[in-house]
Automatic annotation (TrEMBL):
InterPro entries assigned to the protein according to its UniProt record, in alphabetical order: FAH, Fumarylacetoacetase-like_C, Fumarylacetoacetase_C_sf
Ranges annotated as spanning the membrane: none
Name recorded for this polypeptide: FAA hydrolase family protein
Annotated coiled-coil segments of the chain: none
Keyword Metal-binding among record annotations: yes
One GO biological process term: small molecule metabolic process
Keyword NAD: no
Keywords linked to the UniProt accession: Hydrolase, Metal-binding
Pfam families: FAA_hydrolase
Membership in a protein family: Belongs to the FAH family.
Residues annotated as domain Fumarylacetoacetase-like C-terminal: 106-319
Single annotated GO MF: hydrolase activity
Length: 321
């Protein structure tokens, strides 16, 4: 399944959506209708319990929520054709998409897992090494949707991009072994780790990595949460980031020097909760490590397209603060 969080056109509130072709189905409302048709006495109560209208609650419900969503998806064509389908189904292109998880519990950002990225940093004489297993927390308040604006802050002149894959945790767990790691995964998303390099450089002189990665709008996520059953091999997905149509980053998850399972195992020394996100780190091609990097840093007016095979494309304009 492809799951989204969309703005309900009438209620003007975020709702969990199930994608079916060019349509998005309001999962909670559709399941209410389905239960009502089956004679359930309190269909809205049961629907709220089994298929909630927000993503975090949905993930917390676990297996039964996914089973309910599958039932809705199975009847998707019927919902589209229903005379009373208004309010249940919308054209995907005509609704606003938030990040699939608009406010994650925590984002554990990792780095150094694509060794080509570390090598390009050495070649560019980046002041700080990029060893394996670097990690830091990305602020949930930096999260924006797949088509929202990236705000170019007045405090930087070196705004950079980093295409990554996001692993979405679907089950609570700690000290998870790599053999069982995917039992705790709900799915995957596209992620762009926007970075103010000049701020990052100053912070890292003191051994810190904070605001350079965490200013407002520095975490585009989406466009979908693609459930793990939809991704045949997450270790072999093409990755590409484009700025104004020009390819800036191109790679594949098969270039990871560690597995996704090992990443989950490594960082599960902290309790992982449904809706938490762990990122993979970026591929090579960032602006900071190119010759004449000032030519490649993002500027107001740019359009950043972040794409991962099977997971979709985000298109985020860059605007001045």
């Amino acid at each position: 399944m492809k799951l989204v969080t969309f703005q309900h056109p009438h209620r003007r509130e975020p709702r969990l959506g199930i994608v079916y072709g060019e349509y998005v189905i309001d999962g909670n409302m559709a399941y209410t209708v389905l239960l009502s048709e089956e004679g359930e006495e309190d269909p809205d109560v049961l629907a709220n319990a089994l298929l909630p209208s927000n993503m975090i609650s949905f993930l917390r419900r676990g297996r039964r929520a996914f089973e309910a969503a599958e039932r809705v998806l199975f009847k998707a064509r019927s919902f589209i054709n229903m005379s009373y389908g208004e309010g249940l189904v919308y054209e995907l292109s005509k609704v606003h998409l938030y990040a699939p998880i608009p406010r994650p519990g925590k984002i554990i950002h990792t780095a150094g897992n694509f060794r080509e990225h570390a090598k390009e940093a050495e070649k560019a004489k980046w002041e700080f090494p990029i060893p394996q297993w670097i990690s830091f927390l990305k602020s949930p308040t930096a999260v924006i949707g797949p088509y929202d604006n990236i705000v170019y802050p007045k405090y930087t002149k070196e705004l950079d991009y980093e295409l990554e894959m996001a692993i979405v945790i679907g089950k609570r767990g700690k000290y998870i072994t790599k053999e069982r790691a995917f039992d705790y995964v709900a799915g995957f998303m596209v992620f762009n780790d926007i970075t103010a390099r000049d701020i990052q450089r100053q912070e890292m002189k003191n051994g810190l990595l904070n605001f350079g990665k965490n200013l407002d709008t520095f975490a585009p996520l989406g466009p979908y949460l693609v459930t793990k059953d939809e991704v045949s091999n997450p270790h072999n997905l093409k990755m590409e980031l484009r700025v104004n149509g020009e390819v800036r980053q191109s790679g594949n998850t098969n270039r990871l020097s560690v597995t996704l399972q090992e990443i989950i195992e490594h960082y599960s020394w902290v309790m992982l909760e449904p809706g938490d996100i762990i990122t993979t780190g970026t591929i090579s091609g960032v602006a900071a490590f190119r010759e004449n990097p000032e030519k490649y840093y993002l500027k107001p007016g740019d359009l950043v397209e972040s794409e991962i095979e099977s997971l979709g494309v985000m298109r985020n304009p860059v605007v001045a603060e």
